[in-house]
Target: 1,3-beta-glucanosyltransferase
Amino acid sequence: MLFKSILTYISLVTAALAIPAIEVRGNAFWNTETNERFYIRGVDYQPGGSSELEDPLADTDVCERDIPYFQELGINTVRVYSVDNTKDHDECMDRLAEAGIYVILDVNTPHSSITRSNAECSYNSDYLQEVFASAQLFAQYNNTLGFFAGNEVINDGASLDAAPYVKAVVRDLKTFIKNRGFRTIPVGYSAASVDEYRLSSGLYFNCGDDELARIDMYGINDYSWCGDASMTTSQYSQELKDFKNFTVPLFFSEFGCNAKKPRPFSEIESIYSTDMSSVFSGGLVYEYSEEDNEYGLVKLDGDDVTPNQDFKNLKNEFNKTENPSGDGGYLKSSGGNNCPSKSSLWNVTEEIPDTPGGAIKYVKGLAEPTGHGFDAYVQGNCNGNNDVDDSGNYTSTIGASTHSAASTATTAQSSSASSSVSSSSSTSSGSKENEGVVVAATSVTSVVGLLALIAGFIAV
Model:
């Protein structure tokens, strides 16, 4: 039994280390092992939706149920909107890695996120602690492709006031990852495809002198291609024009209009064609499981999975559509874009708020954040001790650690990063990130965990 446990753990560790790292160069993703362009072929994955919130990456039975269908579709990425940062995700993440599947994770939960109605209050120390707790959990996995700092926060004129706070979360999260010595993971934003704000939002989140306050990737939730539409009858042609000089990877974080059922998914051939590859890097179909909004590819009933015609159509489209050869005509330029001009439709300050005082110790890597999972209700926690900077009570950085039940060893990594957590923070112009390279490097934490496990067995 003991030997079997060791073999199982070794198998999972091997799978986690075997999956190639993904990096950003210019406006594209790249496989660092093969040096080939990486296109996202994926689905949005949150069984139960927001009404019956569950963490699909913390339940091994759920993962084992669904991964064979991911493989049948031929996908390489899933997007998960909410996870419980108090739970262990080792087995699901390792099994996904074994299947060659990456994860894009939204770091927010329904009650721990920036709100449109009171962004200033919801941007507080307790909220950031939840964000950092989720990030530190998933930073250890090589198949964590990226983090979304926000989803559709900006969708009308009234919500524009929230934009600086979302950008502050991007800065805080990237600074936290750097100062903790974790591998660099792209941080981005997922935007509603609203004509008035789609481009301006992208430019805003990707502008400014502070590299740590700029996104590394940008997702668009686009449902403009319905039935047998075309590049011109959908918004695709306009988006290609708008984003032709955008300097970070762009992809559809949701797509798949359901006005016509079953969905033919004829847009797949365009998304993965040379017509779009100079600007877009694939996309994620909304969504895997059938929920109240009727976008599902499968119906779930306990352990039973029933694919529908949408699933079959998507599978056929993926099977017959190859990625463009070569580099896809990607944009090699790096660095940010110019900030959008102010107008009657876009009146957003370029100044972003300083990090709340109580979160500075986490951002600087001096203290380890503790998450409260789906029990975290922090959007109104804007008073009390949140504004007190107590980072002076800590004397040294804590380095990068594994944070799971299966892997408890602490790595010897540390970081010399000392980026400011205010709106004036900056990075060295000589860094790889300023060269447009965001590397998802190979993690060693699983190996350390394995050695610790074997040492424990030997001691017994």
